[in-house]
Amino acid sequence: MSIIGIQGQILEVTVVGCNKLKDTEWISKQDPYVCLEYSSAKYRTKTCTDGGKNPTFNHKFKLELIEGYAEIKIMVWNENIVTSHKFIGSGRVLLQKVLSQGFDDDSWPLQTTSGRYAGEVKLVLHYSNALKPATTSFSPSALPYVTPSIPQVVPPFPIPPPAPAATYSAVHYSSSCPYSSYPNCSACFPPSPFSAPPPTSYPPPPYPPTSNYPPQASHCYHPQPNRPPPPQVSPSYPPPPYPPTYANPRPPPQDSAYYPPAGPYSEYR
């Protein structure tokens, strides 16, 4: 959306100051100043000596508006006497709010050449002709939306009036029963051929019933089957040691005249 009818109108711009600027000096404080560019026109504030990171300017400019230009480019520099001026940051100021409402006092951020945050600039914008009627132009692809009207359909025959609501009267019921109690008709049926079961004791006996096992000890004699006699101690047990010992040991063997036999090597013995 663009505002039509701003050609040649005056826009007042006041550069109040800067906050949290990037510091480009190592020892002393920096001396910043602000530059404005609108179309081909350029403006510059005075230098705030030793302004550091939070300089104050309060410099006022009057810009002649041009049809089709709705933003101002701002740049902040650090003035150096010996060397070249150092760039601090730049940003853009949009004019849609001040051109439509007549006033804008926002702070606009600054960025370095690498896109990092470099502080902000406080501006006060004033447009005195904002209260005059201005036409708003729309592009052909964004036509205003008009709500279509809903046609009213008239029926070809009159609609009958609604029928009155039916009324119902409350019905009251008496609390007493008009019928007497039923007569005793036990004499109307023959007696049953089956007798009633005998009454059972309560509580019933436990289940399963108790048994007589194990049997109780009886005083009657029960013959025992034939059993082998208990083992007897053997006189040869435990067995004698091995080898057996003798009462009269044998004498050692004696040399025999025939043993060892005589031979060719007997003389060397």
The main sheet comes to:
5 strands, antiparallel
Average pLDDT, rounded to a whole number, is 76
Low-confidence stretches: 133-140
What is the string of helix and strand elements? EEEEEEEHEEEE
Which percent band covers the strand fraction?
A: 25-35%
**Roughly how many Å apart are the termini?**
146 Å
Measured as a percent range, the helix fraction is under 10%
Tally of DSSP β-strands: 11
Helical run tally: 1
**How many whole angstroms does the radius of gyration measure?**
66 Å
What does this structure look like?
The chain has 269 residues and is mainly beta. 2% of the residues lie in helices and 25% in strands. It is built from 1 helix and 11 strands; from the N terminus they run βββββββαββββ. It has one helix at residues 96-101, and strands at 2-3, 10-19, 32-38, 41-44, 56-64, 71-78, 86-94, 103-104, 107-111, 117-126, 136-137. Strands 2, 5, 8, 9 and 10 form a 5-stranded antiparallel β-sheet that branches. Strands 4-3-6-7 form a 4-stranded antiparallel β-sheet, with no helix packed on it. It is flat. Mean pLDDT is 76; it is low at 133-140.
